[in-house]
Specification:
- The structure is a single chain.
- By secondary structure, the protein is an alpha+beta fold.
- The protein folds into 2 domains: about 160 residues, no CATH class; about 100 residues, Sandwich (Tumour Suppressor Smad4).
- It contains 5 helices and 17 strands.
- A 6-stranded antiparallel β-sheet has the order 1-2-3-4-5-6, with helices on one face. A 6-stranded antiparallel β-sheet has the order 8-7-17-16-13-14, with no helix packed on it.
Length: about 325
């Protein structure tokens, strides 16, 4: 859209519109909306005149609803309308007609009389512009708010490419360079594992807790095996018949302990009189008495006894 770059926008819109800044005071943002609208008016007016003069019919495409691919149309009947002096509401309209070589679909019939439009209006309370995009790149209406200071020559050129169906970055949100650099630093820190072990930063935590499927907990006692899924609820261990794993020993309480998957980890909770000893694969040993211990690695537990391999009551667990 190089031809439109040569359009000169007047410095003053007019006495009733221009807002002059007093020394030491900032110009109100609402006073910039009308000059920004005037620049859009000049660009769109020149663009429509060029399209009508050249008889151009840019091609557009819509994604097919519920199916792969897209359907091609041609953009015709370009029309421009401005209201107010200086303009406070400008509209660019066109018609979308299916291409003759396009396959017949129900969508083609629906859009034979459909109009696409870009409607700009001044939002005085917010001090910016409101843009309604109607059936332009997809069916329906989308609303955008545009700050007046964002209407630069680059922004107007991208708008022209958007209208001409050329590659563009119109209405694409850009990440500031400072924020982009801060995100790179944060991602680099998240990839470093913490000194105390565990997942690496926020990314590792999300990968472990959200994206990774938690595994089952397997128990083994006197030749019998149990597989506990994470959604299986609380698993009871004790001497009573209500427990899933029954240990027939006098030192074991009726409901001695429970195993449950909660907050992304397997946990063992002791609720007995004599307590539970736990030995983990890394050599650490724990004594639980009315307390909870996360089971982060394989090992075995002895309810009511010391954690010794020679003890008859030993429940082996693995992840």
């Amino acid at each position: 859209m190089g031809a439109l770059k040569s359009i000169e926008i007047p410095a003053k819109v007019g006495a009733p519109v221009a807002v002059m800044a007093r020394p030491g005071r900032a110009t109100p943002s609402a006073g910039l909306a009308l000059p920004a609208m005037y620049r859009i008016h000049c660009y769109l007016k020149a663009l429509v005149e060029r399209l009508q003069r050249d008889g151009a019919r840019p091609r557009a495409s819509w994604p097919l609803c519920g199916r792969a691919g897209s359907e091609e149309f041609q953009q015709t009947g370009h029309h421009y309308l401005a209201q107010g002096h200086p303009p406070s509401h400008v509209v660019f309209r066109c018609r979308l007609e299916p291409l003759a070589e396009a396959p017949f679909t129900s969508m083609s019939v629906a859009v034979r009389s459909l109009q696409a439009a870009l409607e700009f209006s001044v939002d005085r309370p917010a001090g910016g512009l409101c843009l309604l995009v109607r059936n332009f790149d997809a069916p329906g209406v989308r609303r955008h708010f545009i700050w007046a200071h964002d209407v630069t020559t680059t922004w107007l050129d991208e708008m022209s490419r958007y209208v001409l169906r050329e590659p563009h970055r119109f209405l694409v949100q850009e990440i500031p360079d400072q924020l982009r650099a801060a995100l790179r630093v944060r991602l680099a820190l998240d990839r470093q594992p913490p000194a105390g072990g565990g997942p690496a930063g926020l990314v590792g935590w999300l990968r472990q807790r959200v994206f990774c499927r938690p595994g089952n907990l397997r128990l083994q006692y006197r030749g019998e095996n149990w597989t506990l899924p994470p959604i299986g609820g609380r698993f009871l261990l004790g001497r009573g018949s209500a427990c899933q794993l029954v240990v027939g020993d006098s030192r074991v309480s009726r409901v001695h302990a429970s195993i449950e998957f909660c907050a992304g980890v397997w946990s063992l909770t002791d609720c007995s009189r004599n307590g539970t000893r736990v030995a983990l694969a890394d050599g650490t040993r724990h004594y639980l008495h009315r307390a909870t211990l996360p089971l982060a690695q394989p090992g075995f537990l002895t309810p009511g006894y010391t954690a010794d391999d020679k003890m008859p009551v030993r429940v082996v667990f693995s992840l």
